[in-house]
Design brief:
single chain; alpha/beta; Rossmann fold; 7-stranded mixed sheet; 4-stranded antiparallel sheet; 10 helices; 11 strands
């Protein structure tokens, strides 16, 4: 497969980078490996070379775990769905904490996937929800449900799809790290946001404990789907260079860090995640219970995720 070398840093455009780590493709048949480099100028860690966009679909097959969702867990699917609802409730709380949302407000969710967060937010606040994603796999099979919630869902890139702004709030829940042009995307989103409006960005935290434990198998790399691995410093720098004012950062977020830890453990063990995971669920839950004391410490020790709040 032909790969395209990324000569310039996505943040500062410097061509000067040092090799950092060699990582295997994750949630994918083994054998392919990819390189992450660190920019000598701004220290952003990014994938180089990376998969051309027109070849990226092969890393998102029907067996891809996030696309299968709760159904991948077989008879435990209902419990897995409850986990997603908890995540959505956490995201709704974040959204309401950074923006005054009411009927008539507009919220854009970039990388919306299955748009249950937007659905929950619309139900709680009456906002107009707009979602965009490069794939419609998350909503195509249940169009009536999203129409009842009043959601407008668009397929494509921010650079390609007309979006009806201005927005009171833009959310990127684990989307920026997939972006091939993150600086341009953030600039375009700022232009679509009302004066005083906000952006919420959640990404994996490269400086976290789980990354130190798992190294090149860390699930936050999600090789080769993630094009960059952000530290709190480089995430702030990316937002500020795009024109946003960063008013808050946290080293915890809405994604359960145990999920990142568990996925990293499966990578370390060489376990495929493309089949039925029903038998793995009891062990998954046991590990979650045993690590609850550590999870309670995530406000003081980064366990894998981070959030930044930007303002126009």
């Amino acid at each position: 497969m032909r790969l395209v070398r990324l000569f310039a840093c996505p943040l500062c455009a410097s061509p000067d980078a040092e090799p950092l780590l060699d990582a295997p493709a994750q949630m994918h048949p083994k054998g392919e490996r990819f390189s992450f480099v660190r920019c000598r100028g701004c220290e952003l860690i990014y994938l180089s070379p990376r998969v051309p966009l027109d070849q990226l679909a092969r890393y998102y097959p029907p067996s891809y775990l996030p696309h299968r969702g709760a159904a991948a867990w077989g008879r435990w699917a209902a419990l897995a769905e409850e986990g997603q609802r908890r995540t959505d409730r956490s995201r709704v709380r974040w959204a309401r904490s950074v923006a005054r949302l009411a009927p008539g407000s507009s919220v854009l969710d970039v990388g919306c996937g299955r748009p249950t967060f937007l659905e929950s937010l619309a139900r709680a606040t009456g906002i107009r929800g707009v979602g965009i994603d490069v794939s419609d796999a998350g909503w195509a099979g249940d169009a009536e449900r999203w129409a009842r919630a009043g959601l407008a869902l668009r397929r494509g890139l921010v650079q390609e799809v007309p979006l009806e702004g201005p927005f009171n709030l833009v959310c990127m829940w684990h989307a920026l790290e997939h972006d091939y042009e993150p600086l341009d995307t953030l600039r375009r989103l700022k232009a679509l946001t009302r004066p005083g409006g906000a952006i919420l960005v959640e990404v994996p935290d490269y400086d976290s404990l789980t990354r130190r434990l798992h190294g090149a198998s860390w699930a936050g790399l999600h090789t080769p789907r993630h094009t960059a691995a952000y530290s709190p410093r480089t995430l702030r720098a990316m937002l500020e260079r795009a024109g946003w004012t960063v008013e808050r950062q946290t080293e915890h977020g809405t994604l359960d860090p145990y999920v990142l830890w568990w996925l990293g453990r499966q990578e370390l063990r060489g376990r495929a995640l493309d089949g039925d995971l029903e038998r793995a669920f009891p062990g998954f839950m046991l590990g979650k219970v045993l690590t609850l004391p550590l999870a309670a410490a995530q406000r003081w020790v980064s366990l894998g995720v981070q959030v930044a709040v930007g303002r126009t």
